[in-house]
Every structure is written in C-alpha cells, then in structure tokens.
Amino acid sequence: MLTRRTLFLLMGGTALAAGGVAASRVGVQPEPPAPPSADAGGHLLWRNWSGIQHSYPASRAAPADEGELADLVRKSPGPIRAVGAGHSFMPLVPTSGTLVTLDRIAGLDGHDAEALTAHVRAGTRLADLGPALSAVGQEMPNLPDINKQSLAGALSTATHGTGVNLMALHGNVQAFRLVTADGQVLDCSPSQNADLFAAARVGLGAFGILTRVTLKNSPAQRVERRVWLQPVEQTLAEWPTLQAAHRNVEFYYLPFTGMTAVITHDETDAPATPRPPTQDNDAVMSLKALRDWLGWSPAIRRRVAKHVLSGLEPERVVAESWQLLSNERPIRFNEMEFHLPREAQVQALKDVIEAIETRRHDVFFPIEARVIAPDDAWLSPFHDRPSGSIAVHAYYKDDYQFLFDVVEPILRRHGGRPHWGKLNTLKTADFIALYPRFRDAMDMRRQVDPEGRFLNDYMRGVFTDA
C-alpha cells in the first residue's frame, strides 16, 4: 500500500508547508524487556508470541500419541496446560507445573469423501491443514486471519473467520476425543457424552486435552479475493449490504485516515491468478511511519494519508480458499477483541474510533470488523446470537493499557463478549451474566476435573464462582 519513500517525501513536504514546524518523530523503540531465560530452579522460560505472557514450567512434554498423553496426564505435576502456537494474549498457558505440546499428534487421521468429513489430530497447525484437506478435495468452511494456530488451540478459544452465514471453527466440529484429568480418553459428540461435547467444544483446555477432531467440511473451492479502500462513512453505511452480498467480508479501519480497507472472498470458477507479494505488513509499518512522523498533528496526518490512499488501485486475486483466508502475520501485536450483538457493532465501532482519535494519538494499527453466525456451544461467544466482532490492536512495542482504559468499557457497554484468547478483564461473575449456560459448563468442568488439575491461576479466576 504506502511505500516508505512516498511517505517520507510527503511528510517532509508537509512539515515545511506547516510553516517550518518540524515533525516530532517517535524515537527508535527498544524491545520490551524480556524475563530471565530460566528461574532460580533452572526451569526454562516459556513466552507467548507477543511476549506479554510467560512462565517457567517444571515439566515439559511432547507426547507422540494419545496413549502417551493419557499416561503423562495421570502422572505429571499440575497445573497441566496444553500449548499450541502461543498466539493467545490472555494467560491461558502459563503454568508452574506441566506444559504439553501436541505438535507430534498432528496430521490427517482419515476422511470420508462422500460425507465431506475429516478426522484431524488436534496438534495440526492450520497452515498445514489447508493443503492436507485440499489434497482430499475438502476445505474448512471458514478460517481465521492468522494461519499459525493449532487446531486444538483455535477450537478451544472460539477462533473464527468472517461471514454472515459462517460459524466459528468449532461450529463445524462433529465429534472429538478428549483426555481427561484421570487419564481417560472420552469420545464426545451430540450422541456420546453430549453435555461434555457442548461444554468442551470451546473448552479453554479446562476440561481435558483434545487429541482428535472430526470436522464437517466443504468441497475444495477457489475464491476471488477483492480488496479496496473507501471512506469509513461509506463502509459503515454499506455494511449490511456487504454482509449479504459476499461469502466472506470484513474491513479494517485505518486510524487517523478516515479510510477503510474492505476485503471480500467469493466462490468462483475463474482460473487461479498469480499471487503478488503480500502488502499487508508494509502497509502496517507505513501507518506506523505516519504515526511516528505526524502524530503531533492528527489533522495533517489525516490529510496526508487520504492523499496517498486515494490513489491506490483495488486488488483482485483468485486462489484456493485456504490460501487466501489465512495469512502470515509476522508483525507482533497485542489485541483486544469483543463479539457484540450484530445490531450493536456499527455504533460500538463509531464510539471506539471517536475515543481513540480523541484520546490516543499514538494508535496506528488497523481496527478489524467481522461478522460470525451463531452456534450452540456453551462457552462460545457466539452462543445463540449473530455477532459482529471488533478487534483493536497495539504494536508489541507500544503501551497497550489503552485497550483496558479506553476500548474495553465501550465494548462491554454494547453487550460484548470477549474473545477467549484476547485481552480482557472479565471474571466468573461477568461470564455468568453473559453466557446462559456458563454455570452448566462450570458444573461439567468440576465433574471431569474435580481437583482442578487443568486450572492455572487465571483459569481458576474464570471458573471459580467469586
């Protein structure tokens, strides 16, 4: 999108045009301080992707199969927490006990071509699952924006994509196998252990550890991806129409520009096109450069951005769905995302934009808006209601306290439920108020793990009635 050279030329000219006032450029930001690589007991550091969560597990395990996992769950010190890609920003993983990775329990475990189902080992990364399903003529109906998560981690936190008629990933789970705290391996589906299936389909790792998942898929399909820029007022006015017109649709508001990037995906029989190098990461860093150089004047920052953005051409590319819906996101950030009643999404986003652009001139990361269909999982943020999500990001080197001080009160006021893996301050009483079946989920968790072997300190704050 924006090239740095273009931005620097424009910003230099703008500073001169402003009467010789020099832009107050943000200095080179240091890396956030890192915890020690080991604790006093010699236990090695575990740290999440963005760097804000860490722990020193006494034991680490990478079981090769379900039997080995069941054995270590019976014998290992708690709390026992499973980890995938470490993309959660909440302290779901940190433990002083046992940290388990399912990286060796990965890959397809069979499929049914006629029923369009696939059995997938729970440690499979989404980036690997796309081509594996494509090889047998299938695809997941929807995918999240980032492709690094493990399947188990994505399901356990209600990770989602976008589309008015498309559920989050767990909505297409037909069955799963779960290792519980006593080392049992349980088959769960609507007809077997049905209540546990309803509670643990979005389970946060609190009910046990997933080993195998049966997914209901769609036929492999090419999609046409279109990306274009337009004013935020136009996008918000057209949002209901865009939702109805496209299989997948989302948009990003670019702070202090007045502009949005709209992204749609629709099924097509058109031949695949060459895929140009992604410009998303350069675009984010260009927005950072705008912030660094012109943060002293939001009005000039907006004028420069609009001038540059207005000349950019729309993007069109055709490829298989899994190749376009999930992306590489190497630029680290911290994130807050809430899922609101769909009818509240637009006003909530207006309120968020106004608050940020009034109070936080340092924000530059795009704000993401998506839509998700309802489902019936007890701990799903989309339980029994069509939802619209709002995700606000902070560059990993920037202070993210504004997410709690400025953004969260707005999203809570509009009835939002937080993404389980993303920053929020909610506790048990809040979840009971927001989730009709939360107490039922608490009861089920106590039944399968009465000693709380899967609960770290944070998880106790989620499932312990205050």
Care to describe what's here?
GO terms for molecular function: D-arabinono-1,4-lactone oxidase activity; FAD binding. One of its GO terms (cellular component) is membrane. Residues 1-17 form the signal peptide. Residues 53-220 form the FAD-binding PCMH-type domain. There is one protein chain. The chain folds into 3 domains: 46-101, 2-Layer Sandwich (Uridine Diphospho-n-acetylenolpyruvylglucosamine Reductase, domain 2); 108-219, 2-Layer Sandwich (Uridine Diphospho-n-acetylenolpyruvylglucosamine Reductase, domain 3); 222-418, 3-Layer(aba) Sandwich (Vanillyl-alcohol Oxidase, Chain A, domain 3), CATH 3.40.462.10. Helices cover 31% and strands 23% of the residues. It has 14 helices and 20 strands. Helix 1 runs parallel beside helix 7 and helix 10 runs antiparallel to helix 11. Mean pLDDT is 93; it is low at 1-13 and 15-23.
